[in-house]
Amino acid sequence: MKNHFVVLSDQNEEDDLEGFVEVENDTSKENESSIQKAKCKYCKSALSYSGNNGTSHLLKHAKKICSGRHLKLPSGQLQLKIKTEVDGTTSLTVKEKQKKVIFDQDVSRRELVRMVLIHEYPLSIVDHLGFRSFVKSLNDNFKIISRNTLRSDVMKMYNNERISLKDLLEANEGRVAITIDMWTSK
């Protein structure tokens, strides 16, 4: 005779049994203690969790077999990860939840233009083989633009920033003094 009931009702082993919802209590063998089984709600495996077995193998199953799908944290709660270094020291780090990244070609192009302007890279950087392979390794979907397209994007950004600055200065009721100092260290 098999009885099905929810595992997490009256057990203190809630943390180890999370994700294992159904339990079978097999009492078909007479004069032996009943074998309690927890059924994985993801892969449907039935694993015993009483007697000498304990519950640590359920946690191993959840982490390795079902890829940690059992270990979903409530929103806002962080999980700590123990990191062991080569020299034997250990440290705690916050394990970040992976968020789904949506690729946008326009945003990536804008960021490429900003990078070239901020660091004063030559426009020919988009022609460099090392840069191309690096970008390809980050996201295979990014279509690398030509040097001329990069120049056009730089000029568009310049004109947009120029108009924005002009509007800001026109809206200002006070006076503005612009000073430029050019020097070289040579």
Concise overview:
By secondary structure, the protein is α+β, with helices and mostly antiparallel strands.
Structural class: alpha+beta
Task: State the low-pLDDT regions, or none.
Answer: 1-16
The portion of residues forming beta strands comes to 15-25%
As laid out across the biggest beta sheet, the strand order is 1-2-3-4
Give the number of helices. Answer: 5
Radius of gyration: 30 Å
The 3D shape can be described as elongated
**Helix and strand run:** EHEEEHEEHHH
Helix content: 25-40%
Largest sheet: 4 strands, antiparallel
Q: What does this molecule look like?
A:
- With 186 residues, the chain is of the alpha+beta class.
- 34% of the residues lie in helices and 18% in strands.
- A hairpin with an 8-residue loop joins strand 2 and strand 3.
- A four-stranded antiparallel β-sheet has the order 1-2-3-4, with no helix packed on it. Strands 5-6 form a two-stranded antiparallel ribbon.
- It has helices at 14-17, 56-65, 105-119, 129-138, 147-171, and strands spanning 2-6, 20-26, 35-40, 46-48, 79-84, 90-95.
